[in-house]
C-alpha cells in the first residue's frame, strides 16, 4: 500500500502518562529483557520543521526507545538532527513502483496477463507504475540510485519499499474500496508478461509461457518471478555492503502472504533486517494475529537476519491494543517494532518505552 496516503501530521515530541496493561497480552512473561531491541519509525521529513522542533522530537524518540528512522525523502538537516541524538537515519525508497521513467523508457514497465502496460493501464490507482525486474537496465538504474544515496555520509542505510510485483491479490479489507472480489487471480492485476520476461522464462525453463493454459497456476512461472526480485535485492545488498551500510526492507506481513499476493520471497533476501507490514486491520484480523505473523516470519528466516514487526497505528482502536500489539510481536520473536503513523498521538511513545526500554 502507498504509505503516503496514510501519512498524518508531522511528528512532534512528547511522552504521555503510563496506562495500565490489560488484556490477554498483559500476562505474557518478560520475554524482551535479555535482548537489545531496535525500534523504527517510517516518516516523511517536513522541510518546515524548525531546528528546535527537531531537537525536541528526536530527543523524545530516543528516550522512547526509537533507534532508527526510515526517511521517505532526502533531508540532510533531518538526518543529521536524528543522528545527533544517536538515532540511525536511513533513506527509504520506492523500488519497483516508480513513475519517473514513463516518458523516457516506457518499455521498462511491466505488462499484465492481458498484455496491458501499467504506463497507460495502472492497476488500482494511478501511482501504480511498476518497473520490470527482468530487464538489466532496470536493475542498473536501481543500483545506481542506491549507490548515489549511500555515498552520502549522513545516510546510515537504505530501506527498500515496493520491492515486489504489483498486488495480484489485495488485502481483503481493501476489496470493497475498489469494488472487487479477488477470490481468484485476475489477469489485469497479474504482472509481468512483457516480451523480456517471456523470453527469459523460455530460456530458463524451456517452456513458452503462451503455451501454458493457466500461467497463474504454474509453479515454475511463480518461482521465476520470486527469483527476479531476489536477484535485484541481493545485487543492491552488495552495494550496501560495499559502502558498509545497512540494508532493510518493508515487506508483506508473512512469507506465505508475500509470495501469494505479490510474488515476494523475502526470506531469501540478503538483508540486515526486515520490517513485515503486519497491518492486521488490512486483513480483517485481530491484534493477536500480529504474534502469529511474527512467529511465521521468524521461523522461516531461521536466524538469517532480525525481524522488526511493522505496525500500522491506525489499525489499533486504543492504547491498550497498541500495547498488546507490541507485546505479541516481541513475545513471538521480533527484534523490535517499526511504527507507521503519528507516533506523537496519544500515548504511543510512552507505551513503546514501557514495553521495550523501561522494564
Note down, in words, how this protein is organized.
It is a single chain. This protein is an alpha/beta fold and 359 residues long. The protein has one domain: TIM Barrel, CATH 3.20.20.80. It is built from 10 helices and 8 strands. The protein has an 8-stranded parallel beta sheet. α4 links the parallel β3 and β4. α2 crosses α3, α2 runs parallel beside α10 and α4 runs parallel beside α6. The relative contact order is 0.16. The N terminus is likely disordered.
Index terms:
single chain; 359 residues; alpha/beta; TIM Barrel; eight-stranded parallel beta sheet; 8 strands; 34% helix; disordered N terminus
Determine the CATH superfamily: Glycosidases
Rg to the nearest angstrom? 20 Å
Instruction: Please state roughly what percent of the residues sit in beta strands, choosing from under 5%, 5-15%, 15-25%, 25-35%, 35-45% or over 45%.
Output: 5-15%
In which range does the helix fraction lie?
25-40%
- CATH fold topology: TIM Barrel
What's the number of structural domains? 1
**N- to C-terminal distance:** 34 Å
Order of helices and strands: HEHEHEHEHHEHEHEHEH
Structural class: alpha/beta
CATH architecture: Alpha-Beta Barrel
> Could you state the oligomeric state of the chains shown?
single chain
The number of strands is 8
Q: Whole-number average pLDDT?
A: 91
For the largest beta-sheet, the strand count, sense and barrel status come to: 8 strands, parallel
Amino acid at each position: 500500500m502507498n504509505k503516503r496516503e496514510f501519512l498524518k501530521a508531522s511528528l512532534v515530541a512528547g511522552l504521555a502518562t503510563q496506562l495500565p496493561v490489560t488484556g490477554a497480552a498483559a500476562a505474557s512473561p518478560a520475554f524482551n529483557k535479555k535482548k537489545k531491541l531496535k525500534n523504527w519509525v517510517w516518516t516523511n521529513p517536513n522541510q518546515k520543521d524548525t531546528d528546535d522542533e527537531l531537537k525536541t522530537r528526536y530527543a523524545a524518540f530516543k528516550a522512547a526507545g526509537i533507534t532508527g528512522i526510515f526517511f521517505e525523502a532526502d533531508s540532510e538537516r533531518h538526518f543529521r538532527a536524528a543522528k545527533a541524538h544517536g538515532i540511525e537515519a536511513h533513506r527509504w525508497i520506492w523500488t519497483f513502483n516508480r513513475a519517473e521513467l514513463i516518458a523516457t523508457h516506457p518499455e521498462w514497465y511491466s505488462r499484465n496477463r492481458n498484455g496491458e502496460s501499467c504506463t497507460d493501464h495502472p492497476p488500482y490507482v494511478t501511482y501504480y507504475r511498476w518497473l520490470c525486474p527482468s530487464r538489466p537496465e532496470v536493475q542498473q538504474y536501481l543500483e545506481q540510485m542506491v549507490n548515489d544515496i549511500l555515498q552520502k555520509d549522513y545516510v546510515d542505510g537504505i530501506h527498500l519499499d515496493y520491492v515486489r510485483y504489483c498486488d495480484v491479490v489485495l488485502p481483503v479489507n481493501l476489496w470493497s474500496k475498489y469494488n472487487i472480489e479477488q477470490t481468484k487471480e485476475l489477469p489485469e492485476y497479474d504482472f509481468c508478461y512483457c516480451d523480456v520476461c517471456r523470453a527469459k522464462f523460455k530460456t530458463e525453463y524451456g517452456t513458452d509461457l503462451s503455451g501454458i493454459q493457466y500461467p497463474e497456476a504454474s509453479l515454475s512461472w511463480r518461482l521465476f518471478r520470486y527469483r527476479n526480485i531476489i536477484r535485484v535485492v541481493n545485487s543492491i545488498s552488495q552495494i550496501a555492503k560495499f559502502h558498509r551500510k545497512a540494508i532493510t526492507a518493508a515487506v508483506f506481513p508473512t512469507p506465505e502472504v508475500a509470495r501469494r499476493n505479490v510474488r515476494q520471497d523475502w526470506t531469501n533476501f540478503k538483508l540486515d533486517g526486515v520490517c513485515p507490514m503486519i497491518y492486521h486491520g488490512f486483513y480483517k484480523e485481530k491484534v493477536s494475529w500480529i504474534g502469529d505473523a511474527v512467529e511465521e516470519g521468524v521461523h522461516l528466516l531461521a536466524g538469517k537476519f532480525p525481524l522488526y514487526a511493522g505496525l500500522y497505528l491506525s489499525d489499533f482502536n486504543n492504547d491498550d491494543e497498541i500495547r498488546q500489539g507490541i507485546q505479541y510481536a516481541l513475545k513471538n520473536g521480533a527484534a523490535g517494532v517499526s511504527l507507521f503513523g503519528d507516533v506523537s498521538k496519544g500515548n504511543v511513545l510512552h507505551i513503546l518505552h514501557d514495553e521495550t526500554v523501561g522494564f
